[in-house]
Amino acid sequence: MKLRHVCDLEFLPVNVLKEGGDDAGYGRVRGERLNGKLRWRSALGSPSEDVTDLAGHAVITTDDGAEVLLTVKLMTLPRMHRGDNAGQLVLLAFATNDERYRWLTELHAVSEGPLRSPAGTVRFEVFAPEKELGG
User: Is 58 exposed, middle or buried (0-12, 13-18, 19+ CB in 10 A)?
Assistant: First the structure.
């Protein structure tokens, strides 16, 4: 399966997540067909000693005024046979009633992120199967 870049998501945290708590913030979306600002909220859990589970939701307000709901599911899993490094599984789903962005609702989007910057910004590079993007 060939993946193609959809967008980059930048989340600016307002405080540090604590297990069982939630966090909120703002950020930016940048891509070829999707650009705008976002407001987000997430909750962190730990179903077992080796697994971290994060569920997040954001409202993206595109530069042309559309609203898109984003759901992010991130799990940190132990990697077998690779030392102490944990692997991360990130699944993303979009929803909107705006016809201009209806294509997002059909995507099975993934990320290998998050990537962290020294300034504390969390960034995801989002990809989807090329055939779902019309390629």
Answer: buried
For the whole model, what pTM was predicted? 0.80
Q: Which pLDDT score, from 0 to 100, does residue 85 have? A: 47
- Ranking 7-16, 23-32, 88-97, 125-134 by mean pLDDT, the lowest is 7-16
CA distances (Å), origin 18, targets 13, 32, 54, 57, 58 = 13, 34, 11, 17, 19
Domains belonging to the chain, first-starting first, are 3-129 (2.40.160.20)
Contact (CB, 8 A) for 69 and 40: no
